[in-house]
């Protein structure tokens, strides 16, 4: 959960059974599934809900799912997003090792290039894809010139060895971007 304080959250939760954990700016509320909808009523909050997990299940998986969902909530302006609400999430495996392998295989060179050059190629490609490959709209969202976006997309294609005009490559890149988001590798 983001964009709220411990005090506001505790006041809101009141007597509802829950466990509140804080890590950095993020707050994790463990409780019954109905809490997610209730938390969405907090003004300005961005919340993400993992799938329901059973006692003994790894909290790391639930945390990863919640982080993915809260990032989607913040991006979309929705108060609450549940993990798997979008179609892409259903196609991704649950195993973080498999997700990491997919990200490294498809996006590894792009991520390393972005890291060493502060080039924002991955963000540019993701923004372009999220806006249905509309260059003008994506460039405006990124606050860059459309020619700059076109250059970044060409560079992304070169580094990833993926032709973004190919449907198969586009699908592979999109799933890898979603996997990177699920692992918390994208902003």
Structural notes for this entry:
The protein is mainly alpha-helical and 187 residues long. It has helices at 6-13, 34-39, 59-76, 96-117, 121-130, 135-142, 146-160, 167-182; strands spanning 19-23, 26-30, 47-49, 80-82. Helix 5 (121-130) packs across helix 6 (135-142). It is globular. The model has no long low-confidence stretch (mean pLDDT 86).
State the gist of this model.
With 187 residues, the protein is mostly helical. It contains 8 helices and 4 strands, in the order H-E-E-H-E-H-E-H-H-H-H-H. Helix 5 crosses helix 7.
Fold topology:
Elements: H1 6-13, E1 19-23, E2 26-30, H2 34-39, E3 47-49, H3 59-76, E4 80-82, H4 96-117, H5 121-130, H6 135-142, H7 146-160, H8 167-182
Parallel strand pairs: 3-4
Antiparallel strand pairs: 1-2
Helix pairs in contact: 4-8, 5-6, 5-7, 6-7
User: Quick check: average pLDDT?
Assistant: 86
Rg, nearest Å: 18 Å
Report the sheet with the most strands, covering strand number, pairing sense and barrel closure: 2 strands, antiparallel
Task: Count the E strands.
Answer: 4
Portion in helices: 55-70%
**SSE pattern:** HEEHEHEHHHHH
Tell me the strand order in the biggest sheet: 1-2
Gross morphology is globular
Provide the descriptors you would attach to this structure in a database record.
187 residues; mainly alpha; two-stranded antiparallel sheet
